Amino acid sequence: MLDLLQNWLLSLGMNEGVTLYVAGGIAFVIVLVLSAFANFVAKRYIVSALAYVISRSKTKWDDAILRQRVLNRMAHLAPALVIYMLTPTRADGIDPVIVFIRSALLIYMIIILMLVLDSLLTQPRIFTKASRAAKEIPDQGLDPGPENSRVFPGSRLCNFHTSE
Q1: pTM for this one?
Q2: Is residue 162 part of a domain?
Q3: CA-to-CA separations, 151 to 33, 86, 96, 145, 158, in angstroms, rounded
Q4: Is 70 domain-assigned?
């Protein structure tokens, strides 16, 4: 993409030394505009359409996904993917910057995927708390209680006590 922009700018009569920077700036603006457009489409149309379909279905688990805002979190991946895909893998003189941008985008996408996974993993807990059969089961997670703390010292991994 940079080569096409440089050739186009050279054909317009621009100085050869300046074309690299101007083409880089134009490419940067194009990538930002496309990522903003991807963000708009993902949140405005895709998430809205999926939310409408989910709200009209008879199943309950997809309503919980909607309440946990899983789709909204996944929509954050759209602009990151656009920037990642349109960032060149190599460019003369700015290789460290490109490596930094692509690495930062990968870290950002991993964090977003972890948040989505966290939202999805809370779904069984929501359904368990809502069911009638689960009201008879204590909600203590991996907490062995004080009577077993001698057997497993320091083993209170999760403390989900809601009332004591």
Answers
A1: 0.66
A2: no
A3: 60, 56, 53, 11, 17
A4: yes
